[in-house]
Specification:
Layout: E1 2-11, E2 14-24, E3 29-34, H1 40-47, E4 55-60, E5 66-68, H2 81-86, H3 90-103, H4 110-125, H5 131-141, H6 158-170, E6 176-180, H7 188-199, E7 204-208, H8 212-218, E8 221-226, E9 229-234, H9 237-252, H10 258-278, E10 320-328, E11 333-342, E12 347-351, H11 355-365, E13 373-378, E14 384-387, H12 402-407, H13 413-416, H14 418-427, H15 444-458, E15 462-466, H16 474-486, E16 490-494, H17 498-504, E17 507-512, E18 515-519, H18 523-528, H19 530-540
Parallel strand pairs: 3-7, 3-8, 5-6, 6-7, 12-16, 12-17, 14-15, 15-16
Antiparallel strand pairs: 1-2, 1-4, 8-9, 10-11, 10-13, 17-18
Helix pairs in contact: 3-4, 9-10
Length: 541
């Protein structure tokens, strides 16, 4: 279907890919993973023809159509929504435009009639007569109502644009579908629809994503970029992660017999396959479990940061009491009449359809903003640490290197020592000279890792986290996820990472313009509950 031959990519002295040979076959969904900077997005640009390799070639079977999810939200501003979707099949759209132009001619000739007839044959073969209704159905499935179908793209909100561009990529059943971070800016409901769509998709899908729930739901293979090569592994992300961790532990067990190790791996595959068979993604993607192979399981070279939250002291029974809290801007009510009490050990996913509402709520709880009405009170035995959505204020001092930056949050003389701070930063993958970087030149992911280091040094018993996985790579997200699951204190967090929310939260609190929805449940149970769906409709309308 699609093959890569002798592919090499080099930028100056840096080699990104070295003589890569691989194939992507029909009916499989490949999740491309790799450490930050390994070349995931570059690889997608090369196979989609947007960037040339240093050497080598990309080959697509004759007559096969590739569709690529557009990252340019302004590229189609002059087009109507429906037309933007149909542009996804460029050949079909070009024929449609040519036919429309001929029909619009005032001096329609016999030659025009013959030409239209010829075009019409191709148009029919491509399913052109149903194209508009197919595009409209796709848009409706993605929550875009009919009254927007003939609106110009330039008039749409950014989050609606994202869904239109997704519909464009999916339109017309492409043979090869290429997507870079398709779940960005999508709500959980839309992501769920996309997961089900792709899980039943019978052609080839190649996708880069930091969303582990998404990768687990759709992938038949994980394609790992490591040491400038690409290796395919059967299974989804969780299988790749857990099996590579198991293989790494086995490698450290020098005395263990080879046959015992093989039995352990076989037992792992059996248990994993049984869990997949019971999952709600009862789709064609389950065929992946038939291909899981012991010989494919290998240790990974990935480095995972050591994110460990410890508490200076255990909190008492009184954690946080919120009474009738409300906040509005000039344009809208963010939330109103919010009341709840946090219990010790609660791990709460705080959600809202309006992200500004959540941020305003955290800012009020942390004393950075004032509510319009109501009050809140922290328990006297609590101490809180907060990871804000915007951390720019923490990195303004260009003179500070990372060691000096972290020293600001040290509590003891021992913690102020350079050896201690360097060791701490090393665990967060700032090793050697990286610990001496100036704090104003850090990437988004590096800044979040610094903020997590700060939080760990505070040893709080209550953590507040506003979109903590933003900018982090899969390794950091996985380590962070594991750490919060093991944390004995109280957590209040907001995330777009489905897996993070489902595996950490034991309680869901949703703040709305008409009050609060508060349930002790898993995140999946909350989303699937028909009574809650009905209640959510009322609270936002």
């Amino acid at each position: 279907m699609l093959s890569v031959s002798n592919l090499s990519v080099q930028f100056g002295k840096r080699i990104l890919f070295d003589d890569v040979n691989t194939k992507f076959t029909i009916g499989n969904c490949y999740g491309i993973i790799g450490a930050n900077g390994s070349g995931k997005s570059t690889f997608l640009k090369i196979i989609s023809g947007k960037q040339d390799p240093t050497s080598g070639s990309v080959n697509i079977d004759h007559g096969k159509r590739m569709s690529v999810l557009s990252q340019d939200h302004y590229a189609f501003d002059e087009y109507q929504v429906l037309d933007t979707v149909m542009i996804g099949n460029k050949k079909l759209f070009a024929i449609k435009k040519e036919m429309d132009a001929i029909y619009a001619k005032e001096d329609f000739s016999e030659e025009d009639g013959i030409k239209v007839g010829e075009l019409g044959v191709d148009f029919e073969e491509m399913g052109g007569w149903n194209a508009e209704s197919d595009a409209a159905t796709m848009l409706s499935s993605l929550g875009i109502k009919e009254d927007l179908h003939y609106t110009l793209m330039s008039e749409l909100d950014g989050k609606v644009k994202v869904r239109v561009l997704l519909a464009q990529a999916l339109f017309g059943n492409p043979d090869i579908l290429v997507m870079d971070e398709p779940t960005n800016d999508l709500d959980f409901e839309t992501i769920g629809w996309l997961e089900n769509f792709l899980a039943n998709y019978e052609n080839t899908v190649i996708v880069v994503s930091h969303d582990r729930h998404f990768l687990d739901a759709v992938c038949t293979h994980i394609s790992d970029i490591d040491f400038s090569k690409i290796n395919h592994f059967s299974g989804n992300y969780t299988f790749w992660y857990e099996s590579s961790q198991l293989a790494a532990r086995q490698r450290a067990q020098q005395n263990k017999k080879a046959e015992d190790k093989k039995k352990e791996l076989e037992e792992f595959i059996r248990r994993f396959s049984a869990n997949v068979a019971k999952s709600k993604q009862a789709t064609s993607r389950k065929k992946m479990i038939e291909k899981l192979d012991v010989d494919q399981i290998k240790p990974s070279s990935r480095r995972y940061p050591a994110i460990i939250f410890e508490r200076e002291r255990e909190a008492g029974d009184q954690i946080l009491n919120v009474e009738h809290l409300s906040k509005a801007t000039e344009e809208e009510v963010l939330f109103n009449d919010i009341h709840f009490s946090l219990n010790r050990g609660d791990k709460v996913a705080l959600i809202s359809k309006n992200s500004r509402a959540v941020t305003a709520f955290y800012e009020i709880l942390n004393g950075h903003d004032k509510a319009d009405g109501g009050k809140f009170q922290w328990g006297v035995t609590t101490n809180q640490s907060y990871l804000p959505l915007d951390n720019a204020d923490f990195f303004k001092d260009a003179n500070l290197n990372l060691v000096d930056w972290l020293r600001q949050y040290a509590k003891t003389e021992e913690e102020r020592e350079e050896v201690y701070l360097r060791g701490f930063l090393g665990k967060m993958i700032f090793s050697g000279e990286e610990a001496l970087k100036k704090c104003n030149v850090l990437s988004g992911g590096e800044k979040v890792r610094c903020m997590l280091s700060r939080m760990m040094m505070m040893r709080a018993n209550v953590l507040m986290l506003n979109e903590p996985t933003n900018h982090l790579d899969l390794e950091s997200i996985q380590a962070f996820n594991n750490s919060l699951s093991n944390f004995k204190g109280t957590v209040l967090f907001t995330t777009h990472d489905h897996e993070f929310a489902h595996t950490v939260a034991n309680r869901i609190i949703e703040i709305t313009p008409k009050g609060v929805i508060d349930r002790y449940s898993t995140f999946d149970e909350y989303l699937d509950d028909p009574k809650i769906k009905e209640l959510r409709e009322k609270m936002y309308n």
